[in-house]
Design brief:
It is a single chain. This protein is mostly helical. Helix content is 67%, strand content 0%. It is globular, with a radius of gyration of 17 Å. It has ten helices and no strands. The chain has one domain: Hypothetical protein af1432 (Orthogonal Bundle), CATH 1.10.3210.
Length: 195
């Protein structure tokens, strides 16, 4: 597996082809998910070949956004991975594992193993971090731009239902992120109660 070449390929594709209206799902999000996937993998004791697969999945998990649509982007990302990764020495089994991770991030998340749990937690890591509101604002602006949401009240109601339904999967994020996420949920519930 030539991870470096695969990384260079997909980052270049994302840089060139992602819409500038993707205020949340831009290149910066992919790089954040990659960083967090590495950190969570370390916390979960995942290394070697499995770590390379996790990092590759993180890089490709939102590649489907090059098609500039929200619905079905995970499937599109798998198609891109299936098309590109054999050229970088990834086996059919590697690609199947990577696509499993990508598809697990589809909301509601449905991880079936530790690697899928790591990607799911890395993808939504910000829900339990200090930059929750800043990153949330970028998603709000993006969803408004794509006419998925209309105003701030809609957004805050959506956040309350999303945070209520969401759960972290790895031991690492249950410990590090869940308590902070619960604080944000209480703050947002308080805000929504004023509407």
């Amino acid at each position: 597996m030539d991870y470096r070449a695969a990384k260079q390929y997909i980052l270049s594709k994302l840089r060139d082809e992602l819409s500038d209206k993707l205020y949340y799902h831009g290149l910066h999000h992919t790089l954040d998910v990659l960083k967090m996937a590495k950190e969570i993998s370390a916390g979960e004791g995942v290394n070697g070949r499995e770590l390379v697969l996790v990092k590759t999945a993180a890089l490709f998990h939102d590649a489907g956004f090059v098609k500039d649509k929200h619905a079905g982007h995970e499937h599109e990302g798998c198609l891109i991975a299936q098309d590109a990764l054999p050229g970088f020495g990834y086996s059919a089994q590697d690609i199947k594992t990577i696509c499993g991770m990508i598809m697990a991030t589809k909301i509601p998340q449905s991880p079936k193993n530790l690697l899928e749990e790591i990607i799911c937690d890395a993808d939504l890591d910000y829900l339990g971090r200090d930059d929750f509101y800043r990153i949330g604002d970028s998603l709000f602006e993006e969803l408004k731009e794509y006419h998925i949401i209309h105003d701030e009240q809609d957004w805050n109601r959506l956040q309350v239902s999303f945070l209520t339904a969401h759960q972290f999967h790895t031991r690492t994020n249950k410990l590090l992120r869940e308590p902070v996420k619960q604080q944000y949920l209480e703050e947002l519930k308080g805000l929504v109660a004023t509407y």
